[in-house]
Automatic annotation (TrEMBL):
One of its GO terms (molecular function) is orotidine-5'-phosphate decarboxylase activity. It comes from Cryobacterium luteum. Residues 24-287 form the Orotidine 5'-phosphate decarboxylase domain. This is Orotidine-5'-phosphate decarboxylase. Belongs to the OMP decarboxylase family. Type 2 subfamily. The gene is pyrF. InterPro entries: Aldolase_TIM, OMPdecase_type-2, OMPdeCOase_dom, RibuloseP-bd_barrel. The lineage of its organism: Bacteria, Bacillati, Actinomycetota, Actinomycetes, Micrococcales.
């Protein structure tokens, strides 16, 4: 299913608008068991639903983006997905951009079905952008990328992730083909950048906007170790970056510019546990404090 024939506003354009109106902070919605306990909620689908809807209510009007972690709903089976659908419906109604963190990856018609589930208008699991894993090749994701573009949706491909176990794979060197000699992470980033540039060239927008295909670059990393040069980033349809790893994992918002350089203007600063652990009575204050910190760094 795709959006109607009316001109579809791209995800990149919607992201730019949200950055301008609400800033670059994204609040994660990760109902860990221990967080549900701290929020005096049951460790059930109903508890995760109450948690998610409360976080959406606190985020609305304060930030522009939320990022529900699908796994923490999936652990309750179908009841968990019903709960997630209700959280997503609240977030959409609140006008928040929703990044579904599902890290889906498959090939052919399988990954196409994932795209239908998450990136189709009217789907009960509809989100504005979805995290994807390109372990089977960026090209294996052509159908989600095509469907996303048709529906004004975005995707974020894992490139250099924030976890320490990833480096030896993501820094491995591509053996042949157009990205021979690049790290795996750099190869994903470059291919995404080329796709954004092509989409940008074909669109009527001025070539300085944000593309709709993003990457995940963790805030805990030295991106140079992945062969990623953040100082020389071309302006045409810059690749947006989903940046988890701030807060609980040790990433410091004050380092936003030094970590991401030319990408900084398109970075979604993602925090989950460090905000959510403020609890139900202080989460609004915690969000406002983080928004101010990001705003101060971005100037
Ligand atoms: O795709 C993600 O959001 C993601 C990518 C990554 O490299 N590292 C990472 O922590 N995440 C997600 O970000 C959330 C953790 O955020 P914190 O609780 O702020 O550390 C979890 O839902 C992770 O799955």
């Amino acid at each position: 299913m795709t959006a109607g024939s009316a001109a579809v506003v791209s995800f990149g354009e919607r992201l730019e608008r949200v950055f301008a109106s609400r800033g670059q902070l994204c609040v994660g919605i990760d109902p860990h068991s221990w967080l549900l306990r701290e929020w005096n909620l049951p460790d059930t689908a109903a508890g995760a639903e109450s948690f998610g809807r409360a976080v959406v209510a606190a985020a609305a009007g304060r930030v522009g983006l939320v990022k529900p972690q699908v796994a923490f709903y999936e652990r309750f089976g179908s009841a968990g997905f019903v709960a997630l659908e209700r959280v997503l419906a609240d977030a959409r109604a609140a006008g928040l951009l929703v990044i579904g963190d599902a890290k889906r990856g498959d090939l052919g018609t399988s990954v196409e079905a994932y795209a239908q589930a998450w990136l189709s208008p009217g789907s009960p699991l509809e989100v504005d952008a979805l995290t994807l894993a390109a372990y089977m090749g960026v090209g294996s994701l052509d159908s989600p990328l095509t469907l996303a573009a048709a529906n004004g949706k975005g995707v974020f491909l894992l490139a250099a992730t924030s976890n320490p176990e990833a480096a030896h794979i993501q820094q491995a060197i591509v053996a042949d083909g157009p990205q021979a000699g690049s790290s795996v992470a750099r190869a994903v980033l470059d291919e995404v950048g080329q796709r954004n540039a092509r989409a940008g060239a074909a669109s009527a927008r001025v070539p300085t906007g944000l593309g709709s295909i993003g990457v995940v670059l963790g805030a805990t990393l030295d991106l140079a170790a992945f062969g990623i040069d953040v100082q020389h980033v071309s302006g045409e349809f810059r690749t947006p970056v989903l940046a988890p790893g701030f807060g609980h994992q040790g990433g410091n918002i004050m380092d936003l510019i030094s970590i991401y350089g030319g990408y900084a203007g398109g970075v979604i600063v993602s925090e989950s546990r460090s905000v959510l652990s403020a609890g139900p009575h202080r989460i609004e204050e915690a969000i406002e404090r983080r928004v101010a910190e990001v705003g101060a760094v971005r100037g």
